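Lecture 7, part 2: worked example. A protein chain together with magnesium ion.
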Amino acid sequence: MSIYRTMLFAPANDLRKAGKALLLDADAVVLDLEDAVALSEKANARIALKEALELPRKGDVFVRINSVQTEYVLNDLLAAVTRGVKGIVVAKTESAEEVRKVDWLIGLIEKERGLPESGMEIIPFLESANAILNAYSIASACRRVSRLFFGGVDYVLDIGTSFSKSGSEIFYARAHLVVASRAAGIEPPIDTVYPDFKDIKGLVEDAKTVRQMGFQGKLAIHPGQIGPLNEVFTPTAEEIAWAEKIVKVFDESEAKGQAVFQVDGKMIEYPIANRARRIITLAGQIAKKSEDK
Ligand code: COA
Ligand code: MG
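Predicted complex, written out as structure tokens:
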């Protein structure tokens, strides 16, 4: 499974932005056929998507399609299920049933086009109260579901409030997504966009909050957000040094039959050692990612 610290949106029908987005340092780009595209432009956006997918790129590419409840979904999938697309982001997913419909259609298109069977991932975008409550069944709807996206902008509208800097109104939904993802055995979720893209300090604080809550990364809308987000979601040198020390001491102690002891005045036992191992794995995956680029 890939690690995504930053996933940058670009409208599929804006080739200038799409072309730039594909060469920036986001771990992935999401080319959008949904809300970043005017209703009158939906058909043109699918044509532009084809062109955008031919452009040089540095990371993985996903396509966000319109909700399954719209008339656009079939044509969006016909445009998006193609070689070079890692997965389909399904806007405003409300239920497991919707995910299974998309899974079925993708399967048919893959077969028709000779694409690797079940190669395409599905990322449900959860952006309403109903979606949040259905998160576990959505996350476990089919094997293609790799992770969930949280759509805070639409969610706060749905629950009748607005975005605040503290994020207190979205705390429950965020926590619920982390738990549902873990219970379903998929990757940790990716957090909502931070619309005030000039406020980097606010973005970094928000990202630190969700990292601590268990999110893997965050959606981005502007190039200026990528560097700061990548940094927040990358283990720091101190964290890696701590993890290496814990694992070394733990392995030595365990070999002598001792599983609980102290390092620098803090109790170390299996869960802490496992957390340290996860940090080392994550750091290794991120380092490999930058070598590959
Ligand atoms: N991807 C790639 N490049 C982007 C970009 C993006 N998401 N957002 C901005 N840029 C580029 C601009 O094209 C501009 O480059 P240029 O000067 O060479 O033309 C540069 O970054 C600076 O942009 P700026 O002037 O600060 O912003 P803008 O007014 O051009 O765009 C937004 C602001 C919000 C419209 C734009 O960031 C955007 O379209 N974001 C993605 C929106 C989206 O896809 N939303 C759907 C999910 S919520
Ligand atoms: Mg939206």
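Residues 35, 127, 151, 153-154 surround magnesium ion (ligand 2) (CB under 6 Å). The longest helix spans residues 270-292. Keep this in mind for problem set question 3.
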